[in-house]
Design a protein that fits this description.
alpha/beta; 4 domains; five-stranded mixed β-sheet; 23 helices; 12 strands; 58% helix; 10% strand
């Protein structure tokens, strides 16, 4: 029993570590790397920017050619040299953070060169997708749905290549495409309904290709097939998908991502939505190639199956009109033993499509906490479509700075008779500094006032985490490690009860938390090194809370408990955590439920400890401690007295564990 437990937990630990390394290393340091960029002529401004950023320069013969390339999504921006002034072309839809780098880099270089420039955006992002997160959010249900249905069907039938399996995948892909399109378009409004009909075939293609590829891999590899699919398509392929802009990924992730479907799905969605379907030949060709090869493998493996060893499928409805009447049979599209796995896959995929899209596609801050010192009208004038402010008046700059040090406000406006300064907290949100600076500068210009902007970090950001993305990114890994440890431990030992189960989970949490802390802090440089010792117990606590919650749900509800954990922690907890954007950018519903669930409190505890000297952690720590203590007491009571385990018809332990293994969000919350 002990050996099996160790093997199970070590397996989960290795997967969690690999996932953490892939995910954090891919998104922590977004910066231009060989980023395609157009020019019409040489310029000292462009030369200066190239010294700071890695640009792949293409020279166009005319302004029209450069603008055409931008409209097709060939380049991330361009620089048009004029006689007395120049034009900077930005392409926000290509990459939100890419535009940030382009605007900032060229503005600084032009100022130093005493060159006037105007900015012309091409393919601007609408408010409904203001950070360009749409394509990544669309990838979630189409990727997760495809490999989830394949994995759960294999778990239920112990066969991958079977008659009718291809038809099920195609039918499932069609339903997922409609759900994803209707949810994101007409229902939530993440993209115009006019784009629904061009995106539906894309959703179908991606879901079908991923599903068929998963079935083919399972047919060849066997029981390890689901693990291989998760590793290649989600952990590696998802990390390298490039939702934030392919050219901003590390160079090795740019090359790795090109090998897997998620990258090509992202490019297909982006180019259809924003670039009129230009440059989709390669993504479509790669996806179709994956699908075609998978079909060949599935058909070949199905034909190789020994008919004598294949049980008669329980997928026909038989009727007889009499002893001498001919027997008629009607084949079911989904055999009876696969109805539950397919239906469950559809439910979880729908939650991925609705919950993550509704919480993350349009980050607009409502009543963002903000400080004002002195008398000024700019704070009112700066509010608009991107944010409204919950303004607190402070007597002096020292008081406002203290509030920022505690993480109580997102920034402060310091107004005096001689100057006006905007201070933005760079460690509290990845987009609030940009929003505040942009709107206040516009308001100041309209009022003919001068304003200076200063980024402020009570604790400096980690060396390789310039946008404060790592805590939110690692949170996904911690949540997955927690529920996976409880699920796999139960499956391995064959029982959800055991008097030392809580200690096994606690030991796993402590060791895994230490390893993740070591890797994130000293290898990936994603945490401040001074925070190593205090981050370790926090990471361990987060894993333990989720593991205990999953273990209790499993003991109380049977295999359905793992499913409940997935829904509570991943489908409602993670979208309501606030992520790197900050809780102020959530809608009222998601902001309202977040304080009651572990992910929001886990994120605040980790972020505020790392970057706000532990201020504001009393409530998050109390909530997590309550979850941990109550969970440990309930689990200990149930395990000590060996109460009967609940069984759920149609859902066994393997199905529940398989669901836990495949229901992994692709990347951090936007």
């Amino acid at each position: 029993m002990a050996k099996k437990s160790v093997v199970a937990l070590v397996t989960v630990g290795v997967l969690v570590l690999v996932f953490a390394v892939c995910l954090v290393s891919a998104v922590q340091l977004l910066a231009p790397r060989e980023m395609p960029f157009g020019v019409t002529a040489s310029s000292p401004v462009v030369d200066a920017v190239q010294k700071e950023y890695s640009l792949d320069i293409t020279t166009y013969s005319s302004e029209a050619d450069l603008m055409s390339a931008a409209a097709k999504g060939d380049i991330y921006g361009g620089y048009i040299v004029g006689s007395s002034a120049d034009t900077l072309v930005t392409v926000p839809a290509k990459s939100f953070f890419g535009e940030v780098y382009v605007r900032g880099g060229f503005a600084d270089a032009a100022k130093k060169a005493d060159r006037s420039i105007t900015v012309t955006p091409v393919a601007p992002l609408p408010t409904a997708d203001r950070t360009g997160a749409l394509v990544g959010l669309l990838l979630l249900p189409t990727l997760v749905g495809g490999y989830m249905v394949a994995s759960l069907m294999f778990s239920a039938s112990q066969r991958a290549a079977a008659p009718g399996r291809i038809a099920i995948v195609f039918a499932f892909a069609a339903v997922v495409a409609v759900i994803t399109g209707v949810a994101a378009g007409p229902l939530i409004g993440a993209f115009p309904t006019s784009h629904l009909w061009t995106l539906l075939p894309c959703f179908f293609l991606v879901t079908a290709v991923v599903g068929l590829s998963a079935v083919a891999i399972q047919a060849v590899v066997g029981k390890l097939g689901s693990l291989v699919v998760a590793l290649l398509f989600v952990i590696i392929g998802g990390s390298a998908a490039g939702g934030g802009g392919v050219a901003l990924l590390p160079t090795y992730w740019q090359k790795i991502g090109a090998l897997f479907p998620p990258r090509h799905a992202i490019e297909l969605y982006r180019n259809v939505r924003y670039f009129d379907g230009n440059n989709i030949i390669t993504p479509v060709a790669v996806l179709v190639a994956y699908g075609a090869v998978s079909l060949v493998v599935i058909v070949a493996m199905t034909r190789r199956a020994d008919p004598a060893s294949t049980p008669k499928p329980a997928d026909t409805d038989e009727a007889t009109a009499g002893d001498d009447a001919p027997r008629t049979a009607r084949r079911r599209l989904v055999p009876k033993d696969l109805v539950a796995p397919v239906a469950f896959s559809l439910i979880l995929t729908t939650l991925f499509a609705v919950n993550y899209m509704s919480s993350g596609h349009e980050p607009v801050a409502d009543n963002m906490p903000f400080g004002v010192v002195g008398s000024t009208s700019l704070a009112d004038a700066a509010q608009g479509d991107l944010f409204t402010l919950d303004i607190t008046k402070y007597d002096d700059q020292a008081a406002a700075t203290t509030a920022m040090d505690r993480g109580e406000i997102y920034g402060a406006l310091i107004a005096s008779d001689s100057s006006t300064e905007l201070m933005v907290v760079s460690t509290i949100s990845d987009i609030s500094p940009l929003d505040l600076a942009g709107n206040f500068e516009k308001a100041a210009a309209s009022a003919n006032e001068t304003i200076s902007v200063k980024a402020y970090a009570p604790t400096p950001l980690a060396e390789k985490d310039p946008f404060a993305l790592v805590p939110a990114t690692l949170l996904v890994v911690l949540l997955i490690g927690g529920y996976m440890s409880a699920a796999l431990l139960t499956t391995t030992v064959g029982s959800a009860s055991g008097r030392w189960r809580g200690l096994w989970l606690a030991g796993f949490s402590v060791v895994t938390g230490l390893i993740l802390d070591l890797v994130t802090t000293y290898w990936l440089d994603g945490f401040p090194k001074d925070s190593f010792w205090v981050a370790w117990p926090i990471l361990s606590l987060i894993i333990l809370v989720v593991a205990l919650f999953a273990a209790v749900m499993r003991r109380v509800l049977g295999p359905a408990g793992i499913v409940v954990t997935l829904i509570v922690i991943l489908q409602f907890g993670n979208p309501s955590s606030g992520g790197s954007n900050g809780a102020a950018y959530l809608t009222p519903f998601w902001n309202g439920i977040g304080p009651f669930l572990p992910p929001r409190n886990a994120f605040l505890l980790l972020r505020n400890t790392l970057y706000f000297d532990g201020h504001g952690i009393t409530q998050p720590l109390a909530v997590l401690a309550t979850y941990a203590v109550v969970g440990a007491v309930i689990l200990g009571f149930l395990d000590w007295y060996r109460s009967p385990e609940l069984s759920v018809p149609g859902l066994d332990e393997d199905d529940a564990t398989q669901a836990a293994g495949v229901a992994i969000p692709v990347g951090p919350l936007p």
